[in-house]
Amino acid sequence: MKKWIINQSETTNFYLILTEKSVWLTEKPKEVNIDELINDKKLTEVRIERYVDDIKEFIFIDTNSTLEINLKDDDKEDIELPLESSIYNEIKSFLIPNLKDTKVKDYSLIKQIQPAVIGTLIFGAITYFLHTIALSLQNGEEIRTSGRRGLIKKIFVGIADFLGPTGSLIIGGLVTLFFIYILIKTISKPQQGKVIKTKSFTELKF
């Protein structure tokens, strides 16, 4: 087991603890002896994410000294830990060689631009559909909203009717342009780092 204080306030310490099988995150008052709690098995209020069952990958972002822990369960919020550079480098130097049965690779540009590309495509398509519906409504055409996914169709028709053709283009275009801006910014200044992908028998060796 290895631990770091990764954040602190006037009264508490926030700990990242690495065990053989899992990651622990916990916040405790400064006067508490966390080693005693661990040894006596009295450590409570701990978030535990297991390498095999819960964690999909660790992302070490060198550019801003941030550790991201992406989880397999889409319903659970991923963990993002901004760190001091010295602590970041220590955790990275320890975890990469000692976490076994993993795949380590560079933090690729393709992975970094995925959210912006997806956002651009989704909002570009939504803008197109809203504008098309708004034009049809403006021309007095009837839009069929019954049948499968009728509720979604009604929502789109309602939004298109409210915004109109011009409003649909302006609002949708601005959101799409925002994602395009993020895409261009990411491509021009990609972040550097490492990705550790877990496998079926990932565990930490001390």
From TrEMBL:
<keyword id="KW-1133">Transmembrane helix</keyword>
<protein>
    <submittedName>
        <fullName>Uncharacterized protein</fullName>
    </submittedName>
</protein>
<keyword id="KW-0472">Membrane</keyword>
<feature type="transmembrane region" description="Helical">
    <location>
        <begin position="113"/>
        <end position="135"/>
    </location>
</feature>
<feature type="transmembrane region" description="Helical">
    <location>
        <begin position="155"/>
        <end position="184"/>
    </location>
</feature>
<keyword id="KW-0812">Transmembrane</keyword>
